[in-house]
Amino acid sequence: xxxxxxxxxxxxxxxxxxxxxxxxxxxxxxxxxxxxxxxxxxxxxxxxxxxxxxxxxxxxxxxxxxxxxxxxxxxxxxxxxxxxxxxxxxxxxxxxxxxxxxxxxxxxxxxxxxxxxxxxxxxxxxxxxxxxxxxxxxxxxxxxxxxxxxxxxxxxxxxxxxxxxxxxxxxxxxxxxxxxxxxxxxxxxxxxxxxxxxxxxxxxxxxxxxxxxxxxxxxxxxxxxxxxxxxxxxxxxxxxxxxxxxxxxxxxxxxxxxxxx
Length: 261
Fold this sequence. Notes:
single chain; 67% helix; 10 helices; alpha+beta; 4 strands; four-stranded mixed β-sheet
């Protein structure tokens, strides 16, 4: 829990410093004040909506036990085995086989796509669910929420820099130059945010924990092979990929969903 929380705090702090520096370089005092406002707004967004942005991007809806008793049974069994609370369950109507977890504690949620439920058998589903529950327990999902929010903020800020003049000079080329400078500074930051939020060690740790919980590491390996083939046949929609960056090696997670590159 401490590792995931520390990574999320470090990620947010690092990006906040870069945004404040960019604001000062582009418009001195006014730019710094604007950057402070953005950082505060980002902190509020992470706290209030960080755990729901990925769910919205995947068009996920809550799913009840009556509708999916098999899924509920699997999640309940694995949560009990891992000695952690059962998360809220969501279903996404996307054909691409994918799963991800978001939120922590009582706000934790686990989302599966319809493609995932159609692709995996019961053993493989147990392994995938155990993997996602391990991310929740380790608070890797907190870093994912921060990543999603900051990436969206940086993207919006870069667009604003190109559309809104920054600077007091009446010369038209100066505002454009300042806006371009802000974009140049923030574009690499967006990439680094996604990379920093995509911790390989957290994926390896979740794999290990899933193998321990299920006692069936071969099922996880078989699931990964099926998911890789399924992702190639039905890739994630572009909007979902942008709004919900994930992490890992060949397996990626938004908080932690499986995704293949």
